[in-house]
Amino acid sequence: MKDILTESIKQWAIERNLHEADYHKQFLKLTEEVGELAQALAKNKTPENVKEEIGGIYVVLTILSMQLGLDVRDCIKYEYQKIVNRNGKMVNGVFVKEEDL
User: Fold this and answer.
1) Would the pTM of this model clear 0.85, i.e. be above it?
2) Which residues pair with 88 in a beta bridge?
3) DSSP assignment of 19-50, as one string?
4) Residues 46/52, Cβ–Cβ less than 8 Å
5) Where do the structural domains in the chain lie, given as residue ranges?
6) How many CB atoms lie within 10 A of CB 58?
7) Number of helices and strands (H, E) in the chain?
8) What fold does the segment set 4-100 form as a domain?
9) What is the pLDDT of residues 37-82, one digit of tens each?
């Protein structure tokens, strides 16, 4: 299923030739975005700020996926299919999968 927003992000990237750019640099951009999210959380920023940072991560991941010949939605679907039946428990506020307990 193709969602309009992700398709719009992809089109935006194509119009700027980002889909053909160096994926190594896009990965660096991803780490920058994750750092901005970490900063927003560490500083107890508003939900609006956190939303902005999570959105930035999705945009960068969408473009990185394109550069690697993948579709971000297929990546999400693949991972979801791995975790959908996963069991485990919370340990100190972190979900630990059963085989790692």
Assistant:
1) yes
2) 97
3) GGS-HHHHHHHHHHHHHHHHHHHHTT--HHHH
4) no
5) 4-100
6) 15
7) 4, 2
8) Helix Hairpins (1.10.287)
9) 999 999 999 999 999 999 999 999 999 999 999 999 999 999 999 9
